Amino acid sequence: MDQKRQHAGGKTANTTAPALPQTGTPNLVSLNEALCAAIGARIRVTVTSPVSTTYEGTLMTADPITQLLVIATSPPPTDPSVTSLSGSFHIIPIASLASVPTILSIALSSQTSSFTAALPALAPLPIAALRAREEAAIRAIKERDQKRGKGVTKEAQEIFDALGKTLPVAWKGTGILVSDSVLVEPPYRIGNCRATGGGDSALSRVRKVLEMELKKLELRRASANIKLNDTLPAMPKNGVGMRKGG
Prior knowledge:
This protein is an alpha+beta fold. It contains five helices and nine strands, in the order H-H-E-E-E-E-E-H-H-E-E-E-E-H. The chain has helices at about 1-15, 25-35, 125-145, 155-165, 200-230, and strands spanning about 40-45, 55-65, 70, 90-95, 100-105, 170, 175-180, 180-185, 195. The strands form two sheets. A five-stranded antiparallel β-sheet has the order 4-3-2-1-5. Strands 6-7-8-9 form a four-stranded antiparallel β-sheet, with helices on one face. Strand 1 (about 40-45) and strand 2 (about 55-65) form a beta hairpin. The protein starts with a helix and ends in a 15-residue tail after the last helix.
């Protein structure tokens, strides 16, 4: 009996299953590292599910977070000036790999750490243009922030935006400084305008523009109220059309 147990135990110890990558194991960590290092190379992989299939192509990316890799099965471009691949792309779960992928050819030269030998060729980034876009975006954000009043009402912001369509405006506390010469203070009516420089001509012009913009705002509010009333259901008059209880 003991001999049979020892014999059976020996069989179990000598039988080893193929090492497949499993989440959370050191094997998967080393596989992720190998895949990341092989990005851009031509590889051959075999998946086990849903059916056993072999893919051969260029490894485009290997994401250790989503545990997915992307392979372009189109042939590599012969023209080094081509910067993109066309054809079929396959998204493959790393956990479905039957074994470690076989590297067929390395896209990057083993003697250099640069990307000049990558296939497809990598175009240089337009650093100057990107920085210019970044600076323009930052300026636009700062300008929008400067035009947003602090501690003012919605109506005050509407008046500021309306005046800003025809005249240079800036916030000065809760007041609106127009053309650096006239200050419009709350509640932002014609009588709340006072000259800070530029004389009566600038004050008169700002008052006319303010009066015109206030009328436009009133018309827009009235139009919005009419549309709102049109969407409300009509109420019955003198009880006509109302159902009696009982």
